[in-house]
Amino acid sequence: MLDAGTSPAYEGISSLPFYDEYDLSTVDVLLISHFHIDHAASLPYVLAKTNFKGRVFMTHPTKAIYKWLIQDSVRVGNVSSSAEQKIQLYTEADHLSTFPQIEAIDYYTTHTISSIRITPYPAGHVLGAAMFLIEIAGLKILFTGDYSREEDRHLISARAPENVKVDVLITESTYGVATHVPRVERENMLMKTITGILNRGGRALLPVFALGRAQELLLILDEYWGKHPEYQKVPIYYASNLARKCMVVYQTYISAMNDNIKRLFRERMAEAESTGEVSKAGPWDFRYIRSLKSLERFDDIGSCVMLASPGMMQSGVSRELLERWAPDQRNGVVITGYSVEGTMAKIIMTEPEFIPAIMTRGAATASRGKVPGQHDQVQIPRRCTVNEFAFAAHVDGAENREFVEEVNPSVVILVHGEKSQMTRFKSKLLGLNSKRKNPIKVFSPPNCEALRIPFKTEKLAKVVGKLAQITAPQPITVRPQDVSGDEEMKDVAPEEQTQPQLITGVLVQSDFKMSLMAPEDLREYAGLTTTQITCRQQMALPTAGVELIRWALEGTFGGIKIVTPDFAAEKKKEQDAHGNGAMEVADEEVGRTTVFEVMDCVRVECGGPQGKVVVEWEGNMVNDGIADAVVGVLLTVESSPAAVKRKFLLHEQSHRPPF
Ligand SMILES: [Zn+2]
Ligand SMILES: [Zn+2]
């Protein structure tokens, strides 16, 4: 199972994936690609409220941020005005009690769970974001999650795993075939827009998701302010308690970031050592950015740059500021993230004349005389400017296509993003198939529709235990003249005709692994309990005699083996073990019995006292059938006409009295 998110456009139960459509108890492994809401926010629900009983993996930074993020979202959910109407998906207690179940792993390390091998690779999307290589039943699947291949100020960009032949690539298609403006140009345009707003005396609102891309924007802004003293009097605010808490995670995981951030770290350390200010030595100790605890502490008195969450302005600080600032044409909203259909971030980009006021707090909105309970009817004019720059760290169409070419899978499955974008990217890939030697199959399955892709994989069985001591079977070359009556075979070159030697054993399949072993190795190598059943049937044939029994058995089964000496010795040993007192009698008895073996599996011991005959065999389907036949023969041996005739014949020849 890949990711467990919620939809940002919905609330409560309706924001969940369609978990009812799938039996979560059958899932062995759940991999969380990164901490974003749409990938991780229903994990507490899955762990606390469903029958899921598999294992959960994410990277260390993802786990660290996930903890704060979910805690924050649960608390915010509790204090929000519409909390009563919402059915809470899970409580803080659910989150905290399930958190220890999550297993944190490192990039480039491989883990095997129920024969499924997983390896995370950097995805270049947010801190800790991973692509997962999954090897299952001989198939290699690469799941990109959200990913980016762009030069970044802090993240290692995504690269295809080296020397791996991927069969299935599950990739995002968020931006479809759209092309991002080159990063440098985009940064220039972003800064031009922000400084433009400031130059006209306005406030720049950057609604951001508290964690992830916001940190990259802060690095850009801090660097720009450092290089442009004329703006240093304009404050940059970052209104997120959550982000403040998580900065320690960013400081901790510098090792998981790229060379740029490590260089910055070294430079700042050197600087700090010379000035003695070691506490501000980290690359995440911003010089020009102020953290804002709450809007109550914010003096809204002039130009500023404000990064506020949530990124899609559905509620919260960013929404409150939007409603406060939207009517002033000097102000500007700068959208930098990916916006989901139906959210305010998406709506504002259409530059509507009015936007609905939903926040109850804030002087500006209150002065407009909102009627409690009729929030939706209060409209606020929008005169502020709206700009959008893609800093979402998702690949664009060209980057995604290049990645597909690089990975070179036989199947691509598109996920994440709007259907229209997905369809465009799908057509693009299919269009490129005409140039490919091996065309790629592309799928964009709708929700709840199972995708069945037939794959032919080589099935390998490991030979273990006793069988492994046999010299590996060498193919035998069969010369054409050895093959009689097959005209076709003669057309084939001799070296191509090989016929492997056969070894036999029990084929054991455990998960996706197969092993071939001798039955007696089952316990040691497969952990299977084996049972051998010995069946024994006794009857009395006082008049038959050993010779007649032998004659009857040979008549039915052909040649039979006489195993008397071995069997007798065995029996003697057995009796010795029971004590010497019985020795004399035993010897006498042993001397008189004869044992035949029918078809190498059923032993018939005859000639015992009072014509006692014992039939013994190891119970299995084949032996049981043969034993049945043997018993059948024995039961008629004294009465069938042929046997009676034979009996007298025998007695005549032996010159012994008949009885
Ligand atoms: Zn994401
Ligand atoms: Zn996403």
UniProtKB/TrEMBL annotation:
Annotated protein name in UniProt: Metallo-hydrolase/oxidoreductase
Entry keyword Nuclease: yes
UniProt subcellular location: Nucleus
Keywords per UniProt: Endonuclease, Hydrolase, mRNA processing, Nuclease, Nucleus
Family to which this protein belongs: Belongs to the metallo-beta-lactamase superfamily. RNA-metabolizing metallo-beta-lactamase-like family. CPSF2/YSH1 subfamily.
Originating species: Eremomyces bilateralis CBS 781.70
GO BP field: mRNA processing
A GO MF label: RNA endonuclease activity
SUPFAM superfamilies from the UniProt entry: Metallo-hydrolase/oxidoreductase (SSF56281)
GO cellular component: mRNA cleavage and polyadenylation specificity factor complex
